[in-house]
C-alpha cells in the first residue's frame, strides 16, 4: 500500500492512497456499508456520488452471512458488486456497544450475538483472519473502545490493552501487495495517554493510523483537543483516519488539523429520517413548510434528487414513508459530503485551506443560529 502527500496547506494535506482495488484521493469520506450495503443505495449510486472507498464491518459480517461464506463467494468486493477499495472496521466498537453481552480479557473478547444469542470469540488474530477472508484492502486492528465517561486510570488500562492487541494484530496480518493494516490510537480525552498510544503504534509500525474512541459522548471541543494532542505524533508519510466523525463541520475542522480519512453513518441515517445536508443548511423534509415548495432541495447541487424532484415531492415521500424518499435523500447527502471533500482538496491544492475552513465553519454557525432563532 502506497500513500503520497501531493499538496499541503496549513496542517491540511491532499494525497493519494493506492490499494489493491484502486486509488483514493484524500481527504476522503467513506460511506458506511456495515452489512455489505450502503443502506437505500446501489453500488452504482454510491459511486456516482463521488465516493471512492466504502467501509464494511467485521462484527456484522462475521455473524451474517459469515466471513468464510463471503470468501467462498469470491470476497466482499464481488459479493456486494463494489470494485473499489474497502476498509473494514475490526468490530471492536460494536463489541464495546454490547456491554451486557460481552466479556473482555487479555486475550480477546467473548460476546453474545445480538441476532440470536450465540456465543462468539474475537481475538486480534481472528479479527485479522476475518478481514483477510473478506478481502478488505484496509484492515483495522482489534481494539477496545474506551467507555465514556471514564477515569484516567481506566482509560490508561483500556488503551494499553488496545496497544497489546495492536501488536498482535500486526503480527497476524498477512502482507500482500496493495493491502494494509491501520493501528488505532486510544486514550479517551487525556492528552498524555493519546501521545503514549500514538508513539506505541509508531514503534510497532502500520500502513496508516486511525484516531478512535472519539465522538462517543465527549464535547466537540474535547474531540478537537484530542486531535491536537494526537496528530503531531503520527508519521507525516502515512494516512490519518478519524473514526466515526461526523458532521460536515467536524470533518472540515479535522482536515484543517491534518486528518485524511473519515467515515460516519450520519449522511445515510439522516437520509432515511428525512434530514438533508444542503449548501443552505440542514433541512427537515418532514416539516410542513416544504409541502408546497416547488424549489429543488439544494439549488447548488446537481445530484439526481436535486435535478429532478422538488422539496414538495420529497416532503410527500418522507411523510408517506415511501422507500424512494430515503433513497433520494441519502443520494443527495452522500453527494453533498463528497462535494465538501472535493472543496477541501481543491482548497489545499490552492494553498487556501484555512480560508476555506474559516468561511465554511462561519457559515455553518450562522445557519445553526438562524435555525435556533
Describe the structure.
- The protein contains 15 helices and 16 strands.
- The chain is α/β, with parallel strands linked by helices and 373 residues long.
- The protein has helices at 43-48, 58-63, 67-72, 76-80, 92-97, 124-134, 152-172, 191-204, 220-230, 248-255, 266-272, 304-308, 311-320, 323-349, 353-372; strands spanning 2-9, 12-19, 22-26, 28-30, 54-57, 86-89, 102-104, 109-112, 119-122, 138-140, 180-185, 208-211, 240-242, 261-263, 275-278, 281-284.
- The protein starts with a strand and ends with a helix.
- A hairpin with a 2-residue loop joins strand 2 (12-19) and strand 3 (22-26).
- The model has no long low-confidence stretch (mean pLDDT 95).
- The strands form four sheets. Strands 4-14-13-12-11-10-6-5 form an eight-stranded parallel β-sheet. It has a three-stranded antiparallel β-sheet with strand order 1-2-3.
- It has two domains: 2-264, TIM Barrel; 274-372, no CATH class.
- The radius of gyration is 20 Å and the shape is globular.
Amino acid at each position: 500500500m502506497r500513500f503520497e502527500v501531493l499538496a499541503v496547506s496549513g496542517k491540511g494535506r491532499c494525497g493519494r492512497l493506492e490499494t489493491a482495488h484502486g486509488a483514493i484521493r484524500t481527504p476522503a469520506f467513506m460511506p458506511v456499508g456495515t452489512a455489505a450495503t450502503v443502506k437505500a443505495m446501489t453500488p452504482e449510486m454510491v459511486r456516482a456520488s463521488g465516493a471512492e472507498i466504502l467501509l464494511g464491518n467485521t462484527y456484522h459480517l462475521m455473524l451474517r452471512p459469515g466471513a468464510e461464506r463471503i470468501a467462498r463467494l469470491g470476497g466482499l468486493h464481488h459479493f456486494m458488486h463494489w470494485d473499489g477499495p474497502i476498509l473494514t472496521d475490526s468490530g471492536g466498537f460494536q463489541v464495546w456497544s454490547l456491554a451486557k453481552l460481552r466479556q473482555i480479557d487479555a486475550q480477546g473478547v467473548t460476546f453474545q450475538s445480538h441476532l440470536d444469542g450465540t456465543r462468539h470469540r474475537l481475538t486480534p488474530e481472528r479479527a485479522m483472519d476475518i478481514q483477510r477472508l473478506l478481502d478488505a484492502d484496509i484492515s483495522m486492528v482489534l481494539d477496545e473502545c474506551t467507555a465514556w465517561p471514564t477515569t484516567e486510570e481506566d482509560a490508561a488500562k483500556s488503551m494499553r490493552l488496545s496497544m497489546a492487541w495492536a501488536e498482535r494484530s500486526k503480527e497476524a496480518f498477512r502482507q500482500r501487495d496493495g493491502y494494509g493494516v491501520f493501528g488505532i490510537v486510544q486514550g479517551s480525552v487525556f492528552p498524555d495517554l493519546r501521545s503514549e498510544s500514538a508513539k506505541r503504534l509508531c514503534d510497532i509500525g502500520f500502513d496508516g493510523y486511525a484516531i478512535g474512541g472519539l465522538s462517543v459522548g465527549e464535547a466537540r471541543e474535547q474531540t478537537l483537543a484530542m486531535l491536537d494532542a494526537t496528530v503531531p505524533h503520527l508519521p507525516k508519510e502515512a494516512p490519518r483516519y478519524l473514526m466515526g466523525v461526523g458532521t460536515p463541520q467536524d470533518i472540515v475542522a479535522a482536515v484543517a488539523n491534518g486528518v485524511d480519512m473519515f467515515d460516519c453513518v450520519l449522511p445515510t441515517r439522516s437520509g432515511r429520517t428525512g434530514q438533508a445536508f444542503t449548501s443552505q443548511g440542514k433541512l427537515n423534509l418532514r416539516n410542513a413548510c416544504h409541502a408546497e415548495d416547488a424549489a429543488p432541495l439544494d439549488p447548488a447541487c446537481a445530484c439526481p434528487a436535486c435535478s429532478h424532484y422538488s422539496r414538495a415531492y420529497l416532503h410527500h415521500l418522507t411523510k408517506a414513508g415511501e422507500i424512494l424518499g430515503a433513497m433520494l435523500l441519502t443520494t443527495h447527502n452522500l453527494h453533498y459530503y463528497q462535494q465538501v471533500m472535493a472543496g477541501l482538496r481543491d482548497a489545499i491544492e490552492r494553498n487556501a485551506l484555512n480560508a476555506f475552513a474559516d468561511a465554511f465553519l462561519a457559515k455553518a454557525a450562522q445557519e445553526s443560529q438562524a435555525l435556533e432563532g
